[in-house]
């Protein structure tokens, strides 16, 4: 089982210029204080960015892998569905940069910038 299956992340849209993912936040995704763990936002953001970045590559020759992620948590949430919308800022030959905004009921809860390296497949 991979992390996408474990978190039950659903793909709503997958193109080279936009990715939309959804997932349901359940008690197992919460901190002991009853709010969603911030790491869940990071997992969802990097997943969306990676999926989109790989749409810009011939994955038989290259795959996009995460270099770094910067996430700002804008508001907390407890339970319910979240939606990640990822769009590229720059698609380069070696590095791609993607911005991912995560929403709950049309309110933005976080924003991430992810840099990915286009790694050669051996």
Overview of the molecule:
The structure is a single chain. The protein has 2 helices and 6 strands. By secondary structure, it is of the alpha+beta class. The model has no long low-confidence stretch (mean pLDDT 96). It has a 6-stranded antiparallel β-sheet, covered by helices on one side. Helix content is 18%, strand content 49%. The radius of gyration is 14 Å and the shape is elongated. Pfam families: 4HBT. Residues 33-107 form the Thioesterase domain.
What is the strand and helix layout of this fold?
Layout: H1 3-6, E1 10-14, E2 19-25, H2 38-55, E3 62-73, E4 80-91, E5 95-104, E6 107-120
Antiparallel strand pairs: 1-2, 2-4, 3-6, 4-5, 5-6
Which terms summarize this structure?
122 residues, alpha+beta, Thiol Ester Dehydrase, Chain A, 49% strand, elongated
Quick synopsis:
With about 120 residues, the chain is an alpha+beta fold.
First CA to last CA: what distance? 24 Å
Low-confidence stretches: none
Number of helices: 2
Widest sheet, order of strands? 1-2-4-5-6-3
């Amino acid at each position: 089982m991979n992390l996408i299956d474990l978190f039950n992340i659903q793909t709503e849209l997958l193109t080279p210029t936009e990715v939309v993912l959804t997932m349901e936040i359940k008690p197992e995704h919460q901190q002991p204080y009853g709010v969603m763990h911030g790491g869940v936002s990071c997992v969802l953001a990097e997943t969306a960015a990676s999926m989109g970045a790989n749409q810009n590559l011939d994955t038989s020759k290259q795959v996009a892998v995460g270099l770094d992620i910067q996430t700002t948590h804008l508001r907390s949430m407890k339970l319910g569905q979240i939606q990640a919308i990822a769009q590229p800022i720059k698609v380069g030959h070696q590095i791609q940069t993607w911005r991912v905004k995560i929403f709950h009921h049309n309110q933005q809860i976080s924003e991430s910038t992810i840099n990915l390296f286009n790694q050669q497949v051996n």
